[in-house]
Amino acid sequence: MQVFTDLSEVPEDFGPSVVTIGNFDGVHRGHQAVLARLVRLARADGCAAVAVTFDPHPAAVHRPDSAPELITGIDDRLELLAETGLDAVLVIRYTLDFAEQSPEEFVTRYLTGALGARSVVVGHDVRFGRANAGTLATMVDLGGRHGFEVVAIDDVGECQPAQDGAGQRWSSSAARALIAEGDVAQAADVLGRPHRVRGLVVRGDARGRELGFPTANLGDIAGMVPADGVYAGWLRRPGRTGQEPADPDALLPAAISIGTNPTFDGVERRVEAYVLDRTDLDLYGEEVVLEMVEHLRPTVRFDGIEALVEQMTHDVARARGVLLS
User: Fold this and answer.
1) CA nearest to 141, candidates 155, 157, 154, 128
2) What pLDDT, on a 0 to 100 scale, did the predictor assign at position 263?
3) Average pLDDT over residues 241-257
4) Do residues 271 and 290 make contact, with C-beta atoms less than 8 angstroms apart?
5) Angle, to 10 degrees, between the axis of helix 184-191 and the axis of helix 172-181?
6) Mean pLDDT of all residues belonging to the chain
7) Model's pTM, two decimal places?
8) Residue 264 and residue 158: Cα distance in Å, rounded?
9) What is d(CA 59, CA 69) in angstroms, rounded to the nearest whole number?
10) In what order do the strands lie in the sheet with 48-55?
11) How far apart are CA 182 and CA 294, in angstroms?
12) Alpha helices (H) in 102-253, listed in sequence order
């Protein structure tokens, strides 16, 4: 998949294309269904399948004090978008100046001018251009005047019904709420995959190694950190994936701890992962991805190190059962 971060990077002869627009935070199952349809339309028409997205999120520019926490950082968003079969993604740097464009200026500069859009796939609630003045009707009108078809799609799907039978929308807000509660298993139903965070492994207090459970501490974290607690999950090493033959250390089972280490009167919230049954790994300075599979327990304060080690041993056994059974 090609990634363009500026119009100057788009080849002059790019297109024709089938284009959609969105933030795609989390690239959840609703997004995946829309993008799968986009790819099918593009293949049938002999066009490139293209998504236009924004970085930072528009809400972070217009209302930074109340903007939602992003489920995925831009690197993971692009990785997940690539998995849908898209041919290209245009990442637009979202600024107040960009937001001042009229709907027609946006369409003619980006969709038809740069990407050669033959079709534009949008939801019924699409908004674009200055003050979100552009609507579906606006897009249809612009399509008629600038030579592209508009394909309007309905809101996509619900996941399995909740206990009250109400069901849960496949939406970024639904996934965000579940992650905030630590319900990563239910969030995976919305996302279509385990929730992930990405970061560099940095040096911590080395306390885990002293206790027999050496952990990889993450810094510069991208992605929404779930509620404090202990999770079963996977530590993925992007630098080792995709190799032939497959690297056995590219994806490793882990017990993941999120919190302030209250037993040691910690105040800094940390994300750290112990790779099950491994004390030989040197991950310092490496970028890793943690994929959260199941919440095991909340963070609690223990009366002493002995009680903590006993509980950690139990956590590791539970994580092993979740991931390797």
Assistant:
1) 128
2) 64
3) 90
4) yes
5) 160
6) 91
7) 0.91
8) 43
9) 10
10) 2-4, 88-93, 48-55, 17-21, 117-123, 149-153
11) 9
12) 103-106, 136-146, 172-181, 184-191, 207-210
